[in-house]
Amino acid sequence: MKIYTNDNNTATLKLLIAANLAGKKIKLQTASFEDVSAGPKILPLLEVDEELSFFSSNAATQYLFPILDLSKNGQCQQMLEWEATRLQPIVASVLTSKSVPSDLKQALNSLLLTVEELLKEHQYILGDKLSSADISIWSTLYPLCYNKDRKQQYLAECPSITKWADQLLSAKAIQVE
Fold it and tell me: Topology of 70-174 in CATH?
């Protein structure tokens, strides 16, 4: 399996961590949008073989690290969709804005409080077991959690997120090369 990615793409973290947790060997290849021949021009791209590729980082994460408790599968899908359509776009906007407008800060704060509430009661997003939802959300929040200024600005009132993020970071499977 190969992951085609560009530099500083936090969505690639999702795939590397999921593969590591599942014990799957992955070859990482730097690419540009022009290098991706079939399908949408989106990176990262997971190429399983000549016939199967994933253009959605969340779908690829779930393929690599599927949820084993099918009773939680719907919740996991819902959280992956929430991360992709709500959290990731807001975090990306915050990271790329020279000056973050107050409405964007407020939107991010609201989303962070959603995650904070989930983690106040449980060790992981869906309860007591690590899932692809944790991997996706953690990867999206990584630039906020591990930048001193951003952490202070956005996560000061989110101790559960900080604790959860640090626990995941210290896990052996998260230590990607």
Answer: Glutathione S-transferase Yfyf (Class Pi); Chain A, domain 2 (1.20.1050)
